[in-house]
Amino acid sequence: PNFFSVYTFAFLLRYQLSFLKLCKDFNLDATYGVTSIEKGILYTVVVRHPNTETGFPVAYCFTTDHSSEPIIEFLTFLKINGMNPNKITIYVSKTELLAIEMVFPSVCRIREHIVRQGSVTMNNKTLQNQVMKDLKVLVHSEIPILFSQILTAFLLKYSEFTSFIQYFKQKYLDNNWYKH
């Protein structure tokens, strides 16, 4: 099917709403090509389930509009219904970033590709797992001075991986992706 105009709808169930209100860290995931509808995008808000410690979807938005407008409306709807995040993780989308900044201007935005890049540039699985753990500690630090101390230790610990550290600095630090 092909819609001649843009099309958007969002939904969540009552039990998902209760998780939405409880959680403070969210992932906004965009999936393309999930239907036969041309240019369709499914946005999913995912939280960490408190019992299983796995990703748990709490809200959905399907759209054919690739601008930030449907994401802004979706996040505004979630905010009105109790979403109060400390952090939102996204992939590499300026559209998503703009929407988050419009609806939740003081929320920390984390780009997921930084975490993934650590595992791509290091061939040792044990080392990759350690980098992932250290990055999670870094991005979840709540106190600015503690963040600075953890960041300094992280940069020193992995300084031999120059391409990763350069990528990390350019994409994460230089562009101010981490904000308290």
Task: Kindly describe this structure.
The chain is α/β, with parallel strands linked by helices. It contains seven helices and six strands. A hairpin with a 6-residue loop joins β3 and β4.
Brief write-up:
This protein has helices at residues 14-22, 69-80, 94-103, 112-120, 125-139, 144-157, 162-173; strands spanning 8-11, 25-32, 41-48, 55-63, 87-90, 108-111.
Task: Give the secondary structure arrangement, pairings included.
Layout: E1 8-11, H1 14-22, E2 25-32, E3 41-48, E4 55-63, H2 69-80, E5 87-90, H3 94-103, E6 108-111, H4 112-120, H5 125-139, H6 144-157, H7 162-173
Parallel strand pairs: 2-5, 5-6
Antiparallel strand pairs: 1-4, 2-3, 3-4
Largest sheet: 6 strands, mixed
Structural class: alpha/beta
Distance between the termini: 43 Å
Number of helices: 7
Rg, alpha carbons: 18 Å
Q: Output mean pLDDT.
A: 79
Unreliably modeled segments: none
What is the succession of H and E elements? Answer: EHEEEHEHEHHHH
List keywords for this structure.
six-stranded mixed beta sheet, alpha/beta
